[in-house]
Amino acid sequence: MKPLSKPARRRVEAWIARLLFRVTAMLPLDVASGLLGGLARLIGPLLGLSRVARRNLARAFPEKSAAEIEAIVADVWENLGRVTAEFPHLGRIARERVQIVGEENAIALRDDGRPGLFFSGHFANWELNGAVAALLGVPLHLVYREANNPDVDRLYRQAREGIAASLIPKGSTGARLALDVLRRGGHLGMLIDQKMNDGIAIPFLGRTAMTAPALAQFALKSRCPVVPACVTRLKGAHFLVTIFPPLSLPDSGDRQADVVALMNAVNALLGEWVRANPGQWLWLHRRWPD
Asked: 178 and 188 in contact (C-beta within 8 Å)?
């Protein structure tokens, strides 16, 4: 058989995504999360993408044995499967399955009359950041990477309705929209732990990684609070969300140096979170140059 054409492949991908969403929405939360988590744990380590995770882990944790690295790879895949299954249930999870530490930091951001930035990374079920913020009265305009398939992206956006104030795609147009949100006193939510080829070189887990500077650029331009938030999976579909006090903003008079200093602080914090729960971070992307 000839390979599927690009339009046909996109239709198949969208059909699978819709089917998966509907099935996991119909299943009880714990059943859906456990089922997809178990399947992903079984199948994921056999996929070629796992080679990326093993290489990343071996370089970040040279002291770990091959068996320890394999255990983390299995945990990563299980977590990813659970995240997929939990997507239709985010509102319920945020209401019923989340312990919050540092709620006062979100409340302060809500009530200070200023714009603000929340940031996190791809930890545990990272989609809960926006859902929890909305429950605390701080609806976030979420900056996200659009799916390559427009039909899948539409499904994602529809599923986020009622959780995010808006969804802002990454890129030059998105940057203008994000700055407009801050000018109007709104709050941005950003996941800032993935590679950006034309970013700036900042250490992350002991190695230089190309890092998107947008978070620091937005914060320094608006002089607004930058609040870290980390999601931790406790057991099954139960979570801890920790909201930290705002980071100190550098003010040396050299804007580029301040951007580098702030992103250094951000990557150092993300590294602490990764080291605390390595199996809950998304090791499957090429975060560092080979």
From this structure: yes
